[in-house]
## 1
Amino acid sequence: MQTAGMSVQAFLDEYIKKVVKDELSKSRSDQNTQALGETWTLDEFRKKCCFGKDREWVKLFIFAQFKDEIVLGKPGGWLKPSKGKGSPYGIYAAEACKWMQENRHLINWDAKLPRR
C-alpha cells in the first residue's frame, strides 16, 4: 500500500521519529523550566554540585570563600545564608548550577577541613 508515494512502513518510521523528537524536546524544556524556580537545601546542593562533599567543607570552601559573589543581593547571587542554628540555607538551583559550572576551576576540590 502506498500513501502519497510513501510506503506505510516509511510513513510509520517517520511518524515515530517525529513523536520521539517532540517528546524529547518537551522533556528538556520542562526540565529547564522547572529548574528556574527550584530551590535546594544545603544537602541537595552538596550532593548535586559538590561531589557529596561534607556540609562543613561546602560552607568553608564555597560559601565562605565566594560569599561576595554568591549571596543574594549581589549580582548573580543564589545563596540565602543560614542565620544560625535552625535557620536553613536556601539555594536557587539554576543559578547555583550555572555559577558552579563557570567557576569550578576556582574551587580547591582537594582542600581539607582544618582539624579540630
## 2
Amino acid sequence: MNSPSVVHVAGRTSGKAVASMVVAIIGALGASRLFGIPSFIAVLLGHLAMPETMSGAFAGRAMAITGVILGYLADIPWLIFTLVYALWAIS
C-alpha cells in the first residue's frame, strides 16, 4: 500500500525583499564610504516588501525584516553624525 506523499512547492520570493537584504548588507559593510545611501534604500525596499510578504503573495518576509533592521542599524550613526555636525555648525 502506498502512503500519500506531500510535496511542498516554494512560492515566489519578493524581489524587493531580496534587494532590501542585499543592499542592506552592502550598506552595512561600506556605510562609511557610501554616505548611508544604500542603507536608506534598504529600509525603503524592506518596508515596500512587507505588505507583499504579509499577504502571502510572495515569500521572503525574513529577508525584508533583515533588510529593514540592518538598514536602520547602518543609518543610525549617519543620523547622529549629521545632527552633531549641524549643532556644531550652528554654534
## 3
Amino acid sequence: MRPILSLLCGVGLLLLGSGLVNTLVSVRASALGYASGLVGALTSAYFVGFFAGTFLAPPLIRRIGHIRAFAFYSACCTCTVLLHTLGDGAWLWLLARLLLGLALVGMYTVIESWLNAQADPAHRGQVFATYMVVNLGALTLAQQLLRLEGQHAFFAFVLVALLISSASLPVLLTRQSQPQLPPAPRLQLRRLFAAAPTSGAGALLSGLAMGAFWGLMPAYLTGRGLDAAAVGTTMSAAILGGALLQWPIGRLSDRRDRRLVLAIVCLVAAVAALLSPLASGHRGAQLALAFVYGGMAFAIYPIVVAHLVDHLPPEDLLAASGSALLLTGLGSALGPLAAGALMSAVGPEALFGWFALLLGALAAYAAHRYRAFRRQRPDAPHFLPMLRTSHASLDLIGEPHEAADASARTLATPASAPHDRP
C-alpha cells in the first residue's frame, strides 16, 4: 500500500470537499428560496458536466501528463467552488455546477488511472477495498462538516475550496512515475441490453433515483425545518447504510440469482421511501429509514454490474461496463430535473414518490426477468462494493493483461457515484 498512500490521501481530501459542496449547494439553494425545480436543475448541471468531463478529461491528461492535469483540475475546482460566493443568481450557480462537474471528473480520472497503474495485480483487491473505504468514509464525514456552515456567510464554500486545493498536495509530492492512460473502451449499449437487459434497466433507473437523492434530499430536509447539522446527520446515515450493507447484500447476490436479490433490494428501498414522509416528526425513525434506504439504494449499481460480469466474456466487459456507466450518468443528469419539477407541481413529498416509483418499477422488472428467463450463471463471486466515478476506474480491480486467459477470474467492474457519488 505504500506506493499509493499519497494518492489515497488526495482521494480523502477530495471527497471531503466534493461530498460537502454537493450537499451544501442544495441546502443553501433551498435557504435562498430556490424552487425545487431549480434545485434539481443545479444537480443536473453538475451531472451534465461530470458526464461530459468523462470524455474530455482523457485527451487532456494524455497531452500534459497526470501531475499537471491534476493541478489544472484542482485549480479549476477551487475557482468554480468560489464562484458560488460571488452572488446567488441562478445562472451563476448553474454555470458553477456545470464547471465543477467537468473539473471533478478530471481529478477522479487522474487518481483512478494512477491507482490502476500502481496497483500490483496480485493485490488489486486490497487496493480497491481500501479505495472504497476511503471514499465512503470521506463522504460520510463530509456531511458532518455541514455543522460548520453557519459560522460565516461563505465559510463552508471556502472550506471546500481549501480541501480540494489541498488534495493536490500529496499527489504533486509523490515520487511515483506517471502512468500511461489507456484508451477508453468503445461503448456498446446494444451489446449491454442484449446480454443483460436487467443491467441496462438497473443502471438507468438507479441513476434517475440516485441523482435526485443527492441533489434534492438535502433541500427537502431543509424545507422541513432541519438545520444544517441535522441534514448532515441524515445524509451520513444514508451513506453509512450504503457502506455497511453493500457487503452482506453482495454476498447474498453471489449465492442467489442476482435479479431476485435486485428485486428484493429495490422493493425494500421503495418501501423505506414511502415510509419516510410519515416519519418526519420522529427523528430516530427518520434516521433508521435513511440508513435502510441508503443501504439498499447504494447496493443497486454494484449488483447491476456484477450481473453484467456474469453474462459477458472478459473481452467485452470494459466496453459493456462503460455503457452501464453512460446510462447511469444520463439518469443522474435527468433525475434531478424530473424529480424537481414533480416536487414543484405536487409537493415536497413527491420526492419519495419518485424514489418509490423508479425502484418499484425496477423491482417488478427484475422479478419478471427472474421468473421468465432463468439461466445458469458462473459460480465464481463477482460482487464488490463500489461507487460510480470515471471511466479510468473500469479496470481498477480487473486483470486486463490476463483477460485472454479463460481461466482467470476477471472483475473488470467500474467504481461507481454518487454515485452514485455526488
